[in-house]
């Protein structure tokens, strides 16, 4: 059996390590020049994670020596590079998979370098890898430099007039780092975010030593963090007991950090906490109160050569940074994926991506998605979800070896979708706000509507009755 893995971020590395442990031949295709996925790409100042450090690592490769409670991008990337080196994962860098096609007996993986055949394909391309830049009239006329925050590179914007478009997680991390170094920062907001304080800080040398040397200390700390997020944050997403607690905490945080009632009013969300991704940050609000930072809530009408125009006029800018998120609902694009009988996955997902347990689609045998449709979390670590999925795929490979080609049935897919939609209807994401969790038509394609514990339970082992098996692989 040969397995192709597409992507070398958290998901691809996890899959490769488990395949190597079982001695299963595999190839990791990575379009970039290194491992890390979104943590390789996002190098803007202040880039980091809103999940606690000790949950943001693999259970099979726990890292006890994180420097902070919430990890920054450089430390996350260094961890992933360490995992790849320690487990001898050697992707084919600079090799983008452009097409996957099933020819009746196996998968053809097409890259600019040619075509290779595999028995099984696992995609691990993530949901946050294709930057979304809004189409604004006149953008091509801008005389300065304009780029997405995920394409920051090594730019230095000190002393420049900067326009930041967006007020989500990336902007909340970026703006405080720009404030005080750029000459002026204008922040363009369409919809305010719910912002909660981030209890960040460096771990003391003693704490790090305890995690390293006291048996069980690190595991217990990690389990406590996981349980807190499951039992306190998740209920707010299904309008449970902590909904009011989260709302009060967000409003109190805003009141404590923004004295100006006018600015505070413009930063107060008009939708329930969690409907859009909650921003975890303690530096964003203070940055917006600085004399050299201005929050602009008038809509952008167009970009002009000298800056950004709103109904109130033109504001000068030398640089425009689009902190506007990613194309999240167009899973696997721009890859073309063709299954049995010529089935086109893009066409099959035209009204919104869906997959059984987020990992398999009818008509596409031996194809598995990591971090696929409806497996994103709004409250806990995606690494937990990825490990559950990799364990599930490994058990599927065992079934394939014994029973042949494996394809989820239409009946199983339909029953799963019905149950999923019922659960999604009870979540706060269904409250009408726009978010990257939804398609333009409002279908929630990204998030898992139950607890992370529930997902691990459902993926503990494959249910053979949900699949058809056939000759060959």
What Rg do the Cα atoms give? 23 Å
Question: What is the count of DSSP helices, taking H or I runs of 4+ residues?
Answer: 13
Helix content: 25-40%
Query: What is the CATH superfamily classification of the largest domain?
Result: FAD/NAD(P)-binding domain
Sheet with most strands: 5 strands, parallel
Secondary structure tally: strands: 21
Q: Please tell me the CATH architecture of the largest domain by its name.
A: 3-Layer(bba) Sandwich
How do the strands and helices of this protein lay out in sequence?
Layout: E1 3-6, H1 10-21, E2 26-30, H2 38-41, H3 73-86, E3 92-93, E4 99-102, E5 107-111, E6 114-118, E7 120-123, E8 145-148, E9 161-165, H4 169-178, E10 184-188, E11 195-196, H5 205-213, H6 217-237, H7 243-257, H8 261-266, E12 279-280, H9 284-288, E13 293-296, E14 302-304, E15 307-310, E16 313-316, E17 319-322, E18 336-338, H10 345-348, E19 367-369, H11 382-403, E20 405-408, H12 410-425, H13 452-458, E21 467-470
Parallel strand pairs: 1-2, 1-7, 2-3, 4-18, 7-19, 8-17, 9-10, 9-17, 10-13, 11-12
Antiparallel strand pairs: 4-5, 5-6, 14-15, 15-16, 20-21
Helix pairs in contact: 1-11, 6-7
Structure summary:
Helices cover 31% and strands 17% of the residues. It is α/β, with parallel strands linked by helices. Helix 1 (10-21) packs across helix 11 and helix 6 (217-237) packs across helix 7 (243-257).
């Amino acid at each position: 059996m040969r397995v192709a893995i597409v992507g070398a971020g958290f998901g691809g590395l996890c899959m490769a390590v488990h395949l190597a442990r079982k001695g299963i031949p595999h190839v990791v295709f990575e379009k970039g020049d290194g491992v890390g996925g979104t943590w390789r790409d996002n190098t803007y100042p202040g880039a980091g994670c809103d999940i606690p450090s000790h949950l943001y690592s693999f259970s099979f490769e726990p890292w006890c020596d994180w420097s902070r409670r919430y990890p920054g991008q450089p430390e996350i990337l260094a961890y992933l590079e360490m995992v790849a080196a320690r487990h001898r994962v050697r992707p084919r860098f600079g090799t983008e998979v452009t097409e996957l096609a099933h020819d009746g007996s196996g998968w053809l993986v097409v890259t600019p370098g040619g075509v290779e055949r595999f028995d099984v394909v696992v995609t691990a391309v993530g949901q946050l890898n294709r930057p979304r830049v809004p189409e604004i009239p006149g953008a091509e006329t801008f005389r300065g430099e304009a780029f997405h925050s995920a394409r920051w590179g090594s730019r230095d914007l000190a002393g420049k007039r900067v326009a930041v478009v967006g007020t989500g997680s990336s902007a909340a991390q970026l703006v405080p780092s720009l404030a005080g170094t750029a000459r002026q920062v204008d922040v363009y907001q369409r919809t305010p975010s719910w912002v909660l304080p981030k209890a960040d800080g460096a771990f003391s040398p003693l704490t790090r030593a305890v995690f390293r040397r006291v048996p069980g200390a690190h595991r217990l700390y990690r389990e406590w963090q996981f349980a807190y997020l499951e039992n306190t944050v998740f209920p707010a997403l299904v309008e449970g007991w902590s909904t009011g607690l989260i709302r009060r905490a967000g409003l109190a945080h805003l009141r404590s950090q923004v004295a100006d009632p006018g600015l505070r009013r413009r930063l107060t969300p008009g939708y329930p906490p969690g409907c859009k991704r909650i921003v975890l940050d303690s530096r964003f609000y203070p940055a917006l109160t600085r004399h050299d930072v201005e929050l602009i809530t008038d809509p952008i009408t167009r970009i002009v050569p000298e800056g950004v125009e709103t109904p109130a006029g033109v504001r000068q800018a030398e640089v425009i940074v689009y902190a506007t998120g990613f194309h999240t609902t167009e899973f696997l694009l721009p890859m073309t994926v063709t299954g049995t009988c010529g089935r086109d996955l893009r066409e099959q997902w035209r009204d919104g991506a869906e997959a059984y347990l987020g990992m398999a689609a009818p008509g596409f045998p031996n194809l598995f998605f990591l971090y696929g449709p409806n497996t994103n979390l709004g409250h806990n670590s995606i690494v937990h979800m990825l490990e559950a999925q990799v364990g599930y795929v490994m058990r599927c490979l065992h079934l394939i070896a014994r029973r042949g080609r494996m394809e989820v049935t239409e009946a199983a897919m339909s029953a799963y979708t019905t149950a999923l939609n019922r659960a999604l209807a009870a979540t706060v994401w269904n409250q009408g706000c726009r978010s990257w969790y939804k398609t333009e038509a409002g279908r929630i394609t990204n998030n898992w509507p139950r607890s992370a514990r529930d997902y691990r339970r459902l993926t503990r082992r494959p249910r053979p009755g949900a699949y058809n098996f056939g000759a060959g692989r």
